[in-house]
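## Example record

The block below lists the input lines for one assembly entry, exactly as stored, with component labels intact.
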Amino acid sequence: MRETAADLQRKLSGEAASLVRDPVIEVEKLDAHYGTLQVLFGLDLAVREGEIMVIMGGSGSGKSTLLRHMIGLEAPSSGTLRLFGRDAAEMGAIEMLELRRKMGVAFQSGAMFSSLNVMDNIKLPLREHTDLDERTMDIMARMKLEVVNLSGFGKLMPAELSGGMLKRASIARAIVMDPKLLFFDEPSAGLDPVVSSALDELILRLRSAMEMTIVVVTHEVQSAFKIADRIAILDEGRIIELATPEKIRETSNPQVQNLLNRRAVEPRVDPAEYLRRLTESA
Amino acid sequence: MKLIEQTGRNTVRCLDEVGYGGSLFGESLFWFIFGYRWRQPVRPNSIAVQMMQVGIEALPIATLLSITIGVMLAVQSIYSLGLFGAESYAHVGIALTLTREFSPLIIAILIAGRSGSALAARLSSMTINQEVDALRAIGINPVRFLVAPTLIALVVMVPALTMWSNLVAMTAAGLYVSQAIDISLGAYWVNTIEVLSTVDLLHGLSKSVIFGVLIAVVAAINGSMVTGGSEGVGRMTTRAVVHILSAIIVTDMIFALLFTQ
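Predicted structure tokens for the full assembly:
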């Protein structure tokens, strides 16, 4: 069987391959705040064309915030975000909407529109952004349902789907416009290991079949090592490691090892600070 | 000190919401007028669906309320004017009160309860479920897709229902008055049309256009500011209805002070 360019690229070291491609996403010195609370601290990250970048970290590490910035749902407090070589801050709202047609997002909750059935959910981007007739849109939506193994479920409402089916339907909607860049927010969260593994296979298949650049946010270690070309590990809003899965495994960084080996770390408690927290009014 | 601080915070939040409402209104108009140029049109079928939900489906309850208001106003007019022996002038008060005040107000209150709450609940549950984020990620402006069709439907249907309410309430009042003071319904209508001017009708209709805008914008502000889970949806829906009703009544008073002197 003939190997695709993406298959060959995966056989090469992810890091080496990624260096020869142009960056699709470039994040430079990115700071982000929620109110007065700073959640991202001067992040630098480049995702290159055709690679699968996995962003890992514990709860509250800032990985979902980073994803929201990459998608353009949040504006950074400072720093630069370039998508397809264009500075997001210099783009107007309409240009950003245009750019998002090249991107697909599969949200953690699925975020399917509850008032539309699965088929209409998938057809919505086509209906809004193309002049295709209804029959062609039906065919394209069915093709994407086939890709995610959901053929025959198009008439169901999102509330009638299981968690895994909901995520796959959400992926079908995300890829219906054949985007160049695909984001996954916690694709395996809340799924059993079999369904989770099937989703990993699907992500790999999407990259090799459609040559997409894929960014996955997850805290599932097994899943991350299975699909990633490179892994960025976040801790308290900072990237503490960025390397290929092999190098991440070998790292001596204790925070990374704690995350990979699922070791809980007891926070150091300053007695005076602890007393202040207990006694000060809310 | 805490009271002053709280008052200050509430004032800032209130101004913030008013500003946000203004931008929602402006953005909706922008997409309605220029959307086609940017391949982000406000689709006519979305507006038609909203018109059905906001207007046509509200017709039975709007008709019932209008009959009730018409008859109630007729009973009170006959009684109060009867104290001076002036029952034959009942049509004057009924026609002017209905067209200038009661019909716009009762329809606005009805639509606020039906469609304002529905819009706020829909937007807040979509926000909570990341559906609004999903729209933006797909490259669809949520204001254009969710708010603009409802706003346009309300701006058309609230005045249309107000006109319908005028007609139904005056007919119901006429039926009562014609029995009470022994005149024909035709004579009642002739007298009513003589009394009413275009200005009276426009007074009520222009108010109802403003009420339509207020219902859509205030519901959208509250719906999109939701936090928390399903409890937040309920809280913001209730808040939306209370704010819409308050906005309608205050606007009505301002309108009366400015244009009924």
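Residues 193-210 of chain A form the longest helix (18 residues). Residues 28 and 136 of chain A are 41 Å apart (CA to CA).
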